[in-house]
Design brief:
The protein is of the alpha+beta class. It has one domain. The chain is built from four helices and six strands. Strands 3-2-4-5 form a four-stranded antiparallel beta sheet. A two-stranded parallel sheet has the order 1-6. Helix 2 runs antiparallel to helix 3. The radius of gyration is 27 Å and the shape is elongated. The N and C termini lie far apart (82 Å).
Length: 233
């Protein structure tokens, strides 16, 4: 028995295997967790860039000459959303349509001669199948707003999105339901929300004939096009 115990004491075969068995779960957890975190950060950055792209393109869209205010139509807005879907990689990538919700708001002064610096949401259009998500910053028709956007930013010295007199600002909110690489609760925050805004570049036709009811050709400043369904919220 003494010789057997001595042999076991001096036996080193299998030590590396035992050490690997003890450390493998830790290494695997670190690798998987790091990969998931890196993917989450990348997806969030891409969603932020998509929001900025939508705001920038929305600020540029419209048809008209240099001598007249540009008119925007529901075709322009629908094309804008399709461009965002392509930017997300479609159904082979992030698939913004299936996993997200885009809310585009037109922010305008309540009146061109307004002296109390209040604003309204002239119109709002949405895109994406995550219809349970509603805007946290306002609805179409909201008026007498001090601004649109996260109010918490005010504490950091920033102001909410506003519009210049005689102009408009495109405010975009992009909600995305994060799709993890690995099933399970690796990332506590599964939903991503990014916002962006951009002032309209050119003079835009902001007139409205909403008073005409269903016969209106450009309710709230967006011109109707025959055969095109508005992407209303």
């Amino acid at each position: 028995m003494t010789r057997l115990l001595a042999r076991l004491r001096d036996q080193h075969r299998g030590v590396a295997l035992i050490e690997f068995a003890l450390m493998a779960p830790i290494f695997i957890t670190m690798i998987l967790g790091g990969s998931e975190l890196a993917n989450y950060i990348t997806v969030r950055m891409r969603i932020s860039q998509i929001a900025l792209q939508i705001a920038d393109n929305a600020a540029r869209m419209g048809n008209g000459s240099k001598l007249s205010a540009k008119k925007i139509t529901d075709v322009d807005i629908n094309d804008l959303f399709q461009g965002a879907q392509m930017e997300s990689g479609g159904d082979k990538g992030l698939d913004l349509k299936k996993n997200g919700r885009v809310i585009l708001s037109d922010v305008e002064p309540v009146a061109n001669t307004s002296t109390n610096s209040t604003y309204r949401i002239g119109w709002q259009r949405c895109f994406g199948d995550q219809t349970s998500h509603a805007s946290a910053f306002g609805r179409s028709g909201d008026t007498n707003l001090v601004g649109v956007g996260p109010s918490t930013a005010l504490a950091s010295g920033y102001t909410q999105t506003i519009a210049l007199q005689d102009g408009a600002t495109m405010f975009v909110e992009v909600f995305y339901k994060y799709q993890p690489l690995i099933a399970g609760k690796w990332i506590a925050e599964k939903n991503i929300t990014e916002v962006a805004s951009m002032s309209v570049r050119d003079r835009r036709d902001l007139t409205s004939d909403s008073s005409a009811g269903s016969a209106a050709t450009h309710p709230d400043g967006v011109y109707k096009v025959a055969g095109v369904t508005p992407a209303t919220c």
